[in-house]
Amino acid sequence: MATTCKQKNIQGHPCFGGNYHKNGRMHLAVAPRCNIKCGYCTRKHDCANESRPGVTSRLLSPLEAVQKVREVMASEILGQVIKVIGIAGPGDPLANEETFDTFSRIEDEFPHLIKCMSTNGLLLPEKIDVLNGLNLCSLTVTVNALDPDVGAGIYSNVQYHGKRYSGREGAQILINNQLQGIQKAAEYGMTVKVNTVYIPGVNEDQFTKISHAVKKLGASVMNILPLIPQADFAHVQAPSEEQVDAVRKKNEEIIGQFKHCRQCRADAIGLIGQDVRIARVGCNVTSGVNGRPSHR
């Protein structure tokens, strides 16, 4: 492994020990397209009271996203809370040019805010240089399997460089790129978190393998997420809290575990678990942290 660059500053990031009770994040839903089909993912509907990845009340253009950041940062309360600007969908950020345009605009106007992104990692090796140039500080990569046969049971297809792959072949391409991208991100000094969805009966034997592999490549923390039964896995019962805690405890001996995840929406704003809602760009924030009005 190449010499690691100086670690980028993520002080205040609520997902990396940055006091999530006081520091918040803002997700910008600018990335609608996705290049893989995960069996546990559906983006067909949005409920105002629903918190899960892949949903948003509306998509934003890069210009609208920056305007929304301006509004939130001008808020008396939220302006003091928000430390991180993230892009987490509703598709895969790296499959959308809007992601890079948005981050560039945020870097120009709000360079003090931490830039963070979540990705499936398929395009990470070829996009990591661009992300580093945009001063991306932290990165989350969802890795659900290292065994391509297991991955074939999770991903229906992978769209890569104009060709559609399925089964073991598609899963192997994805896994290879995820691992290569994680290593490159760590070498750039980015703080890397790995998400792994716990799918009972499918990938239980993969957690320890993933922990060892990503730790060796430079990842610093792992986030084991319980399955939300939907789409192809609607019939699978979600793991219990006790099951998830047991897996986290076992893997904590290998790599740090993130334990306060709330499986955030693509348009989440505020403290983890205490999001506010802004109906549209141009309207005032009507509810704030802990239910208090932030500005009107």
What is the N-to-C order of secondary-structure elements (H for helix, E for strand)? EEHHEHEHEHEEHEHEHEEE
- Rough outline: globular
Give the mean pLDDT.
Answer: 82
How can the largest sheet be summarized? Answer: 9 strands, mixed
> Number of DSSP helices?
8
CATH arch. level architecture: Alpha-Beta Barrel
- Protein structure class: alpha/beta
The CATH topology corresponds to TIM Barrel
Q: How many distinct folded domains?
A: 1
Task: For this entry, give a set of tags.
296 residues, 3-stranded antiparallel beta sheet, disordered C terminus, 29% helix, alpha/beta
Please explain how this structure is put together.
- The chain has 296 residues and is an alpha/beta fold.
- The protein has one domain (24-286): Aldolase class I (TIM Barrel, Alpha-Beta Barrel), CATH 3.20.20.
- 29% of the residues lie in helices and 18% in strands.
- It has helices at 62-73, 78-81, 97-109, 124-133, 148-152, 167-187, 207-217, 241-251; strands spanning 24-27, 36-38, 82-87, 114-119, 138-142, 155-160, 163-165, 191-198, 221-226, 256-257, 269-271, 274-275.
- α1 (62-73) packs parallel to α3 (97-109) and α4 (124-133) runs parallel beside α6.
- It is globular.
- Residues 1-5, 45-55 and 278-296 have low confidence and may be disordered.
Quick recap:
This protein is α/β, with parallel strands linked by helices.
